[in-house]
Each structure stands twice: as C-alpha cells, then as structure tokens.
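Notebook, p. 212. Picked up where the previous page left off. The plan for this session was modest: take the two constructs that came back from the sequencing core last week, fold each one, and keep the raw output in the notebook itself so nobody has to go hunting through shared drives later. Recording the first one now, exactly as returned: residue sequence, then the structure token string.
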Amino acid sequence: MEIHRCYDLFLTDRKISGCSESTLRFYDYVIGKLISYLSSTNSDSVVENLQTHILPFFSALQQQNLAPSTYHSLFRGIRAFTRFLHQEGYVQDEIRLPKVKQPHSTISPLTPAQMRKVLHSFNSNTYLGLRNYTIVRLFLDTSMRLGELSRLQLTDVNLEDGFVLVHGKGGRDRYVPIGREMVKCLWRYMKKRAVIDVNLSPHHLFLTEQGRPLTSRAIQLVFKRLGRKINLDGVRLSPHTLRHSFALAYIENGGDPF
C-alpha cells in the first residue's frame, strides 16, 4: 500500500483516538517530511519497503543541523506512525528505527525577585498590558500548559467558586483552583475584554485587540518580546519556565508564589 494512503488511515485513527488539532498538525508535519524525502530521492513509497529508507531518512535529518529537541520530536512522530503500520498489519515486521536519545535540557525557574520583575513590567491600564499580565499570573498560579491556556473559553472560568476548567491532552479535563488575587486579576481582565469587538470570537478567553483568539504561537511571541525587554540574566522566559517556577514557588512558599 502507498504511504499516502496509510498516512490518511493513520490520521483518521488519531482523530478517533481524540488527538488534539495541534497533535494532528504535528503528525502532518513529521510524516510530511518523510513523504517529501521519499519523493525527493525517487524512493519507493510502498510501505512494505519503508524499512530500507528509514536509516537514510534519519541520516538526512541529522545533516540539517536540527536542534536535539526537534530531532527527537520527529523521531517520536515517525515511531508512532511505524507502530501503527505494524499493529494494523500494513507491514509484516515492526519497522526498526535508529536509537535516538531524549535530550535533557535544564530549565532554570524564576527566582521570587525575577517573578516580581516580570509582573511589574506590564502596563495594566491598557488592554494588551492587562491581558499579558493575566496570562503570566495564570501560568504562575495554575502551572497549566501553553496549549491548555490558549484553548480556555469564558465558560471555563468560574470566578465565584475560584476554579478554571482546563482541557488537557487527549480530552482529559480537570478543575484547577485559583487564588483570590488570581480571581481579581481575571475579573479585571474580563471587564476590559468586554469593551473590545469580540464578534470574531465571542467565546475564547484571551483575544487579540482585533477580537481574534490568541494562539499558542502568539503567546510564545509575547514571552519572547518580554524576555528581550526585561533581561532576566540568562533565564529564558517562556510558559514552560513559568511551569517550573510554579513548582519552585509551591515548595518554597506553600503554594503561593506571591
């Protein structure tokens, strides 16, 4: 069977399994690289012969000087696809992949002084300033993931009882409590949000000034610009950094980083 057809079946299987749109886009990117490689090298695209092309494919990836984390992500995507091929009987033998070590990167959490520096850097009198301040506070208060925060809807926020409904990976939802100050912060943001044009996306919690949903990529850009602005002495400011900072604050301050 042609690899294009098997990929379509794989994608359908992932959708039925409840994979998120971002995960499906990830698979599309990864397997698209494999298909492009087979096409560019005039290689056989029949999955029964895929084993002969796997090692040359990974060798070609190594020559692209990819970051270790990117290379490992591509490996994980290909591994999921080849396992599917074997489990569903499209290939007789399990396709052998090269051994790829998972990269270990050290993420330095923010110190309390650095947390204060970040939080004091916003102009909360403007919509963007208050929105970005609220996003940072929410990461610090809940330790939720980037994708989880970008998917939040207005109806997921319960200010009266002090919790947020977080939609996790694979359809696993959970209720996350928020502190009193976080409740006040969200209330102020939602009040300012109400005065912008939300016709394009009335349900998403975090919006652009034009009323469009704030994507994960847009949130990453907010952190990138903020990191350049305030310079945290070598600490890379990102949503993931704040998740680690949440853990540090929980240990050192009984769960209250503020």
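Okay, moving on. Second construct, recorded in the same format:
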Amino acid sequence: MKPEHHPVEHLFHATKWSWQGFKAAWAYEQAFRIEMFFSIFIVPLAFYVGDSAIETLLLLLSWLLVIVVELLNSAIEATVDRISTEHHELSGRAKDLGSAAVFLCNLIFAGTWLTLIFV
C-alpha cells in the first residue's frame, strides 16, 4: 500500500507529473505541437469572435476538448506500443478508436465555431 501524502504534497507531485506529461507530448507528439501552434491564433480569435463571455468560453472549451482528447489518444498509443509494437487487431482497434475520438472532437470544434460565427 502506498503511503498517504499531505494534500499539499500530493498537489505538488500531481502538478510535477502533469508538467512531465506536457513535456512528453511536446517532445514526442507532432499533433500536439501542431495544436499548440494553432492555439496561438485560436485563443485570441475566440476573444474576438465571441459576442459574450459564454460564447468565448464555448469557443475556447471546444478547442481545449481537442487538446485534451489528443493527449488521451497519445496516452493510448503509448500504452499500446509499450505492450507490443507488433501489429495486432486489438492494438489497431484501440489506436483507431482513439483517433476517432480526436476526429469527433474536431467536428465539435468546427461545429461550435461555425455556429457561433454564422448563426
């Protein structure tokens, strides 16, 4: 059984591990680097396009959802590759499902932006 940590100590460690995750995503995941590049334009544009705080929040959250699911997809891919780099139907299925989740988030992102810009 793992020893209990003080809540502040736990928060410190959790923050450190999260930062390591961001660094790993930057180092190993091209899609993450591309999304960070697009963030340079998308975040300010959300403040310009949104007519209210709620609209701006929806625009930003739709983009954040893409990034979050991309990170989860990268974690799935790394885990599958850790188990074996040999091609297996279930490994391919796991990776395809993660990719499909990212695709759906991109549709949500596009739909949110198009709706708030044109409707």
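Notes on construct two before I forget. The mean pLDDT is 95.
Flagging for discussion at group meeting.
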